[in-house]
Amino acid sequence: MTSLSGKTDIDWRAAAEMLAPVEVLNEDAQIKKRSRDFFWYSPILTEALDACFGDLVAVPKTAEELAHCLKCAYALDMPVLARGGGTGNYGQAVPMDGGLILDMTAMNQVLEVGDGWVRAQAGILMDRVNDALKEHGQEMCMFPSTSNIATLGGFVAGGSAGIGSIANGVLRDPGNLMGLKVMDVTADPREHVFEGTDTLQIHHAWGLNGIITEVTLRTVPAEDWQGCIATFDSYEAAFGAGVALAHARDIGCKLISIVDARIVEYFPRLKKHIPAGRDLLVSMIPDRSRDAFRDVIEAQGGTADLILNDAERKAARIPHVYDFSYNHTTLQVLRKDRSATYQQYGCPLPLDAADVAKLRAALGDDVWMHHEFSRYEGDVTCADLPVIWYKDEAQLRAIDATYEAHGFPVYDAHTWQVEGGGLKSADYTHLAWKKRMDPKGLLNSAKSRAWGAVKDLTPEEIEARAAS
Ligand code: FAD
């Protein structure tokens, strides 16, 4: 069997035999499908990654089977990467060096539920975790809007925040990510335990420094959540209401998203339920906060058009509010028109609707804003994930420059290297652990710009760079 990726000279037929009894998928269509994620949101990444494929897929069902896969990878020098639901946006799950793709979705059990925490295998879909928690009156402290198709391990390795983050902070905030088990890629693979803040040595490393097998995550009491849509006659007013709600902790919002009225034109199943041409505030609140929510919206000049529990929403045939939040907002537009893309920006603190209005005036019609509120280290923060009507990279970078000139930082979504986006610079703690857990550098190393310069150093020497 020749190399589908064209990047390895490994005999993949022999490799598949060596991997037995682990299930393997070796048809080109199966491998190609599992070599993709949502990088197609970006025209720049589409050009860079479209021709990158793995060579073989293995589907381990137990930690023992996973250890066998990693032992084989180590023995044959196979490039290897873990894959969950494949919903990452930066080509995180694309095998840059070809090789073995580990489909983690068969390691999918909830292992233990305690008071305020859940321990589960990394390949489980997050909706399944929440289903199991419901029986205990609890839910995950946060999860991405892709919770029906994305895995817990993929979220920890590639994600950062989500629904619940305005109440409970982002994943890296103390107490949220409580523990991880992570397997190394060595001659005799074994699991390492990371607890408390040590989990940050693995979190958001894009799977470059070990394969996560188990996650312990904070849970919170479940509430009778209501999906809410409020509308405003200006984006500035909607944003101001978002700031007010984010600070009103007693209301207990689990989600606050602001969406430009022009994007709403791409939400056909919502359109007949809300007035046309108005900017949206999308939220989730506990049932007990209906009146308080209405009061804040009205004080900011808006109207609370929909406040529905799940049964009412389904009866009205309205999609879940998740569909209008985080990267689902962009997806609604892309489903209709692939010429759009998006970008990720921060907002200067303290949050001020007037700053956003000034920036909007400078941006023109190619940028349609969409903001997500969250808490980080206790403070209310906000990210802008606008829809951008893309012409070419020069236009995108000019838009970035306008944001920066107004004090709004860029977290580039059009880069396939871990140092390029949210991290901005090399994380030497991640890389020191990569050296310990993956001494041969088999775990998708091309995804790190900094790895080449440190791969021959000891973990301690790499860590020293973090200190300097
Ligand atoms: P994958 O895409 O399969 O993998 C992501 C990364 O993790 C890859 O680098 C992969 O190699 C690595 N990985 C996967 N499993 C393991 C493992 N067991 N051990 C080690 N490494 C592993 N992100 C958010 O943070 N919040 C959101 O609200 C959000 N909304 C989204 C909405 C849409 C429509 C889309 C397309 C994306 C969104 N994302 C969001 C990004 C992404 O969906 C999440 O980060 C998601 O949790 C990734 O999980 P996954 O199982 O799909 O991971």
Helical content band: 25-40%
Adjacency order of strands in the biggest sheet: 14-11-13-12-18-19-16
Tell me the quaternary state. Answer: single chain
Number of helices: 18
Percentage of β-strand residues = 15-25%
Q: What overall geometry do the principal axes of the alpha carbons give?
A: globular
Small molecules (ligands, ions, cofactors) in the structure: flavin-adenine dinucleotide
Low-pLDDT stretches are: none
Rg, rounded, reads 22 Å
Largest sheet: 7 strands, antiparallel
Number of strands: 20
Question: Span between N and C termini?
Answer: 47 Å
Based on secondary structure, the structural category is alpha+beta
Q: Give the overall pLDDT as a whole number.
A: 96
Describe the structure.
The protein is of the alpha+beta class and 468 residues long. The chain contains 18 helices and 20 strands. The strands form 4 sheets. It has a 7-stranded antiparallel sheet. Helix 8 (235-247) crosses helix 11 (290-299) and helix 16 (428-437) runs antiparallel to helix 18 (459-467). The model has no long low-confidence stretch (mean pLDDT 96). The structure holds flavin-adenine dinucleotide. Residues 37-38, 81-89, 92-93, 104, 122, 144-146, 150-151, 153-155, 157-162, 206-207, 211-212, 326-328, 331 line the site of flavin-adenine dinucleotide (FAD).
